[in-house]
Amino acid sequence: MSIFLENEVGLFYGSDSGNTEEVVKMFVDSWNISELEVIEGSDMTVEDYARFDFIIIGLSTWYDGELQSDFEDFFEQFQTIDFSGKVVAMFGLGDQYDYAEYFVDGLGILGEVILANGGHIIGMWPNVDYDFDESKGLFEDGLFYGLPLDSDNQRDMNEPRLAAWMQKLETEIQQMVEA
């Protein structure tokens, strides 16, 4: 795959329980990007984000809509990142039943900052086949800011959803290259 990039792709993730890390491993094993640098949340810096034109973010939402701990600790710095000219795709994990009012809120919390700071988000995902009450992760028109996954209640859907999302990213990237 030829992503419009001669530059590396940065995949940033935070994982407290291991579920997000599991999805990152599925992503890395499935998508053929030779120039992919994976950066664990506890190691990320503002300068790391500046190095990439294409950024992938994976995180979970905890409890009552809280960011995963690495992103929570980094959030003040995250808000200072200039995303101008950057393309960002995100996936988020959450529990749509036990935390139905906060399902994948992390996608929306980060997504709002990315857009406000000049970024372009791709890979928005339709709100279909999920059962929750509210979510800051919803962008508009029934779309999430990125791919929502629920390893607690729909683990069997993670792999097919991830595969479909990766195909969506490839299509959107190709359209950007051709434009």
Automatic annotation (TrEMBL):
Domain Flavodoxin-like per the UniProt entry, residue ranges: 9-170
Cofactors that this protein relies on: FMN
Keywords of the record: Electron transport, Flavoprotein, FMN, Transport
Family annotation (Pfam families): Flavodoxin_1 (PF00258)
UniProt cross-references to SUPFAM superfamilies, sorted A to Z: Flavoproteins
Superkingdom of the organism of origin: Bacteria
InterPro entries, alphabetized: Flavdoxin-like, Flavodoxin, Flavodoxin/NO_synth, Flavodoxin_lc, Flavoprotein-like_sf
Coiled coil: none
Entry annotated with the keyword Flavoprotein: yes
Any GO MF annotation of the entry: electron transfer activity
Keyword Lipid metabolism applies: no
Family: Belongs to the flavodoxin family.
Function: Low-potential electron donor to a number of redox enzymes.
NCBIfam families named among the record's database cross-references: flav_long
PANTHER family to which the protein is assigned, alphabetical: FLAVODOXIN 1, FLAVODOXIN 2
UniProt-recorded name of the protein: Flavodoxin
Provenance organism: Reichenbachiella agariperforans
